[in-house]
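Lab channel / #folding
Pinned by the channel admin:
"Please post every new chain as: sequence first, then the structure tokens as a reply. Keep commentary short and put observations after the output so the thread stays searchable."

First post following the new format, from NK:
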Amino acid sequence: MTRSPGRARAAESRGSRPARRPRVASVAGIEVAFVLGGGGILGATQVGMLRALVEAGVRPDAVVGTSVGAVNGALVASDPTPTAIGTLTELWTSMSRSEVFSGSLVTRARTLARHGTHLHPSAPLRRLLAASLPERFDQLPVPFQCVAASVENASAHWFTSGPLVEAVLASCAVPGLLPPVRIGDAHYLDGGLVHSIPVGRAIALGARTVYVLHVGRVERPLSPPRRPWEVGLVAFEIARRHRYVEEMATVPEGTRVVVLPSGIEQTPLVSLRYRDTSRVADRIDRAYRASRAVLEEAA
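Reply from TO:
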């Protein structure tokens, strides 16, 4: 696989090492997969990428998502058409009016004091998802899977069937912001803790062409920290990114991976201003234009 710095290109893998893949049964008929990574408010970037893909006539046979990518992924799996892209665009551009992360500093402090683990309740996001998604996985026209971090087992847990909203909610339960999601006797946190961009899952399912939709950080290499606060940022990014890097290095021969560009050169390593929606429209537009150019070139 070849990738040029700062810009993603489609390429055939020429790796010599055998790939170590999760023990997942491949699914017949899956040729094209969309993989949507995590990244909080930066996930608006994926909307632009999805628009470019849909306009290029690329339809997924499967969608795999984690964290905010589970939200975007479930929505596109429910309707892989321009209509869904319009819905996603409206959802993201109107997020400043959303109640998902609403509340004053005092309100958030009270929530933290009352529960001790999070700043926001999960009910507003649950309502938003319930209004936008089917009730169950098997009602989706495109197969969809999402991952969450199992608290009790300290491992990745893939949701592939059953109630859809709770699974997506579990996948995007950001530690400290939202509470762990209880499903049965187990508790789950954000899927980005165990899979930031689960390329390996799509390949394990049998996909021969994988489109990677990320939020921008993977487009530039990390640099050694030079300031005290950079130490934590770089360490966090290594922990977040290493599994993706390993999976990209072991893509099987003959599998085509297209990493779509975000169109933004200086994406922050950590978006601390998680409620700042001022750049949502700009992120969507830049990702759309950059991804459209790459798809036209690869056609």
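NK: Residues 29 and 61 are 7 Å apart (CA to CA).
TO: also worth noting, Confidence is low (pLDDT under 50) at residues 1-20.
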